[in-house]
Amino acid sequence: MRQIFLDTETTGLEHKLGHRIIEVACVEMTNRRLTNRHFHRYVNPEREIDEGAQAVHGISRDFLADKPRFAAIAAEFLDFVRGAELVIHNAAFDIGFLNAELARLDMAPIETVCHGVRDTLRMAKELHPGKKNNLNALCDRYGVDNSHRTLHGALLDAEILAEVYVAMTRGQESLIMDLGDDEGGQGAIGGQALAGAQRKPLRVQRASDEEIGAHGQQLAAIQKESKGKCLWLPSEAAS
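The structure assignment produced for this chain is given below.
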C-alpha cells in the first residue's frame, strides 16, 4: 500500500478567483512506513499573494520570483503521486487548487492519476464530532510534536500529517516501529508473535458497574453532540 501525504500553500483561499499554488509537498509512505522519499517544490504563481495568506505561510512574492512555474514541475509531480492513495487534510481545498493548475495545462484531473483520495479532516470529524479537528488540534490530541510549526509550510505539514494519520488509524504516538531481531534473528513484525514463542495466558479485565455507567454517559454525550450519529451505540439505543 503506497500513500502520499500531500499539502499545498496558495496565494489565497479561492482557486475559482484565480488564486494559485505557491508550494506543494508530498511525503511517501509504503505499508505504513515512511520511505524518506518526498517531493517538494516552490512555485512562481505569476500573481500577487493575499496579505492574509502570506501571514499564514510567510512566503513572499519576492521569494518566489525565481522559482519555476507549475507547468515546469507538473510532469515530475504527477510521476511522484501516480498510482498512490493521496492523504490530505481538508482534501477538497488542495484537490481544487491542483485540478485548477492542471486544467490550465489542459491536463486531466489528479484523481485520474492517483489511486483515490483520503480526507483526514473528514476522518477526524467522524472520530471526534463536535471537537476542533484542525492539524494543531489533532497534534495535541494524539501527542504529536508540532512545536516547530510556527508558520504553515507544505513539507512540514505533510510530515506532521503522516504521523497524525498513523496515530488516528492505529493509536500509536510515533512512526518508529521496533523491528529489532531477537537472539535467534527472527524478530517480530507488525505485532505478530515469533515462530515457536510461548504466550502467557491473557488476563481478562472486566469493567465494573461504575465504569459501564460512565461509558454509557459518554456515549450519550457523543450521541447528542453528533445529532444522533454515534456509531458505538446499540441500534436500539440510537433510535
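Interim note for the steering committee: The first helix runs from residue 51 to 57. The mean pLDDT is 84.
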